[in-house]
Amino acid sequence: MSHIPPQPPNQPDDRFRPHPGAHPSGAHPGAGQPAAPAPGQYTGSGPGHHPAPGPGAPPPVEQGHAAYAPPTLEARLAEQHRLDDRDHALRARLEAVRSEVGKAVVGQEPAVDGILLALLCRGHVLLEGVPGVAKTLLVRTIAQALDMASTRVQFTPDLMPGDVTGSMIYDTRSGDFEFREGPVFTHLLIADEINRTPPKTQSALLEAMEERQVSVDGTTRTLPSPFLVAATQNPIEYEGTYPLPEAQLDRFLFKLVLELPGRDTELEILRRHAHGFDSHDLAEAGVGPVADIPTLLEAAERAGGIHVAPEVLEYLVDIVQATRIAPSLALGVSPRGATRLLAAAQARAWLSGRGYVTPDDVKLLVPMTFRHRVLLRPEAQMDGIGIDQVLTSIIDTTRAPR
User: Fold this and answer.
1) pLDDT string in tens for the chain (402-residue length)
2) H or E stretch including 251?
3) Which residues of 247-256 are buried (b: 16+ CB within 10 A; e: fewer)?
4) Within 10 A of 345 (CB to CB), how many other CB atoms are there?
5) Measuring CA to CA, how many Å separate 241 from each of 106, 199, 236, 237, 400?
6) Closest among 40, 62, 44 to 53, alpha carbons compared
7) What domains are defined for the chain?
8) From 17, 127, 176, 401, which residue has the greatest number of CB atoms within 10 Å?
9) How far apart are CA 310 and CA 313, in angstroms?
């Protein structure tokens, strides 16, 4: 089993944090600093800037202590809410999953992180990308690394609800009907090209996704735990497809867009295939279990207890409310979407090594959590405005707590 040593306690993981931008001037702080101002020269126009004293001016009054600066919100939360050693040990196991997936899937790190976050907060993911960007391979590899059962269902126009959930079958030996489980009875269900089946069959997943159970012939049967639906769809082919209803879209935690690889990434993919990589044989590629279901369930419980400050809750609500009054949107985010964003932010904070949620956690999760929950107005579509553009604008214009 691969082992990745845990990070020191209370040390955030930079991979789940936004990278700091460059210095506004484009140079290193201190480089190319202007000379000292001449006496009486105005040194700035903002608050706290004063003209330098001219000849004959009284000497400045010496300050015995520097001006007091109140601690930032993150500094206060970091002092009060910390993870313990068990949290860091569990995080190390999930970090090993990310590394293990990299043995079979090159790139697509945001999608890997999205699926791990969804597993931590009992969500489902909608994977969108053109054919051949490793959507199915990604889910199969994560299942292998977590030692979880996975089942793939090819959604077609003739697929029936019973083909997914299971149905009652007559047993000639006993002379009675018995229930035969469908492929939904698994941990990771890969619903391949889910938009190619009629809404009647799509709706068969609604109860399974929300209640994690299946009702057939008046009897309710519980699905395994954890349970995640990873549905895929092709964004460029619409002939013979059935758009997912809003009720079903709202049950997906994330909509993850898998982009085409860049030059270096695609070169690495070809190198691996040139050396005999076979995507159908993950064991031969060296992918093995590095975590298990009890580890994941314990991690999910701990992630759900991450502290959320009142200021961060208000910030999250302000963003949700802004989607409902945005002029470019015909449909805003529902309360379910708000609660799912909160759970995802807690999971992201935990994976980052923090015991508290920051506004940055909320900001970075808004696009993937909301892009499938809102609707553009027709006039906005005609103007070429995209959903992600609208969400980015809302983030930029909503004041974040400091």
Assistant:
1) 444 455 544 455 554 444 444 444 444 444 444 444 444 343 444 444 444 445 445 555 455 555 666 778 778 777 778 888 899 999 999 999 998 998 999 888 899 999 999 999 999 999 998 888 889 999 999 999 999 999 999 998 889 988 999 888 887 887 788 888 889 999 999 999 998 888 888 888 888 998 999 988 888 999 999 999 999 988 777 677 888 888 888 999 999 999 898 999 999 999 999 988 888 888 888 889 999 999 999 999 999 999 999 999 999 999 999 999 999 999 999 999 999 999 999 999 999 999 999 999 999 999 999 999 999 999 998 988 999 999 999 999 999 998
2) none
3) ebebbbbbbb
4) 27
5) 29, 10, 11, 8, 40
6) 40
7) 81-275 (3.40.50.300), 304-402 (1.10.8.80)
8) 127
9) 5
Sequence letter at residue 16: F
Read off the amino acid at residue 256: L
Which residues make Cβ contacts (< 8 Å) with residue 379, sequence separation at least 6? none
CB 343, CB 121: distance < 8 Å: yes
Amino acid residing at 171: D
